Amino acid sequence: MGLSHLTSFIITTLAAASSVSAAATTASKSVKCSTGQITSNAACCAIFPMVDKIQKDLFDGGECGEEAHSALRLSFHDAIGFSIHGKKGGGADGSILVFNSTELKYHANGGIDDITARQFPVFQELNLTAGDFVHLAAAIGTANCPGAPRLKFMFGRPPPKAPAPDLTVPEPTDSVTAILARFADAGFSAKEAIALLSSHTVAAADVVDTTIPGTPFDSTVGTFDTQVFLEVLLKGSLFPGNGSQPGEVLSPLHGELRLQSDFELSRDPRTACFWQAMINNQQYMMSQFHDAMAKMQVLGQDTSRLIDCSDVVPVPKPFNQNIKYPASFSKKDVQVALPFPNLATVRGPAPTIAPV
Ligand code: HEM
Ligand SMILES: *[C@@H]1O[C@H](CO)[C@@H](O)[C@H](O)[C@H]1NC(C)=O
Ligand SMILES: *[C@@H]1O[C@H](CO)[C@@H](O)[C@H](O)[C@H]1NC(C)=O
Ligand SMILES: *[C@@H]1O[C@H](CO)[C@@H](O)[C@H](O)[C@H]1NC(C)=O
């Protein structure tokens, strides 16, 4: 154990020993809730029935559909309203839900009104703060997607104080420099930014090209696999809708939309290696995404006052297969020169991806 590790070990141990809060004293034991579930803290018991209600009322009984995708996007747009230098919002505080009349006017929040409108009545029926609600819903929605990691859920955020200001959410028209600067301002490295972008494996666009709502970013939009990292590197040849729109670049497949930001991040020397490392590396992607989301979902929060209620988050179905090139594609269509895993190709003619 090196000196710095030893020092931090001692500090952590002392901190744990001296904080005799209710959270710390019950955390080591497991508790059986009256509803039957096992959890590490009795305070989490009240959340299990809320998870059932959110699954039923928001996610059609547990699907990885549009609401699940949008709940994940919403958690980002809420949390990224934050700066380590201050004055850019309260982070993962639910302000986007409570102050929706302000935050939804921001250009980068285009299309977000669908999910806040769906979430608001469910939020009002539950005894959760807006921050806890938004970030619990994102963890549950993500868990509905096979292949996703089981995200953490920290409980106890206070109500949001004010809306986040404009221009905290990156846009697909932004340069890599601007995107990485914004992530760094919120406390994220370039590697963590790419880890968070794993979310675009369960994503579709409604407003980039309004003539083709629900157009996915990869060919497996209902699975939390690494397919998006592969498909963004394929040579583009077409626009799926009404020609070229702002923030959109050529896509390799009919029915698939490629964001300019994903394209540039996948090829930029500052991020290309992180991007490629995800391809067909399911366990690695899951752990990177899990850790970056754990950080994102408590941005701006006093974590010493939160209780770890991750036990309430459903366990996602696994995805254990190798990913494949979409039909008619192979290594020759990949636009990068670096070493690349050998992958099979789906049989048949080039697909047209169906909207979500
Ligand atoms: C460089 C940063 C990012 C940019 C520029 C970006 C941009 C976009 C855009 C333009 C859309 C489509 C919106 C529409 O037309 O409806 C989208 C969708 C989405 N984004 Fe991002 N995004 C970024 C990072 C993230 C992060 C960090 C997350 C989550 C951790 C995320 C999650 C999603 C999801 C899940 C969707 C799909 C929503 C749905 O299908 O309803 N994005 N993103
Ligand atoms: C915005 O918040 C109000 C309450 O302030 C709520 O009634 C409404 O449904 C919300 N709308 C959207 C689009 O989120
Ligand atoms: C609502 O939640 C708070 C904080 O978790 C808790 O103290 C309170 O007992 C709850 N109220 C009801 C009516 O469940
Ligand atoms: C198609 O795109 C063009 C140029 O971006 C735009 O002016 C036009 O309004 C769009 N058509 C429709 C039907 O949205």
Automatic annotation (TrEMBL):
Subcellular locations according to the entry: Secreted
One GO CC term, this protein: extracellular region
Signal sequence extent: 1-22
Pfam families: peroxidase (PF00141), Peroxidase_ext (PF11895)
Cysteine pairings via disulfide bonds: C33-C45, C44-C309, C64-C145
GO molecular function per UniProt: heme binding; metal ion binding; peroxidase activity
Active site: H77
GO BP annotation list: cellular response to oxidative stress; hydrogen peroxide catabolic process; response to reactive oxygen species
Keyword Iron-sulfur among record annotations: no
Plant heme peroxidase family profile domain ranges (all copies): 126-313
Record bears the keyword Signal: yes
Record keywords, A-Z: Calcium, Disulfide bond, Glycoprotein, Heme, Hydrogen peroxide, Iron, Metal-binding, Oxidoreductase, Peroxidase, Secreted, Signal
Required cofactor(s): Ca(2+); heme b
Domain of life: Eukaryota
Residues annotated as binding Ca(2+) 2: T201, D218, T220, D225
Main localisation: secreted
Cofactor: binding comment: Binds 2 calcium ions per subunit.
Site location (Transition state stabilizer): R73
EC number: 1.11.1.-
Residues noted as binding Ca(2+) 1 in the record, renumbered to the chain: D78, G91, D93, S95
Xref: SUPFAM superfamilies: Heme-dependent peroxidases
Sequence similarity: Belongs to the peroxidase family. Ligninase subfamily.
Protein name: Peroxidase
Organism in which the protein naturally occurs: Gymnopilus dilepis
Lineage: Eukaryota, Fungi, Dikarya, Basidiomycota, Agaricomycotina
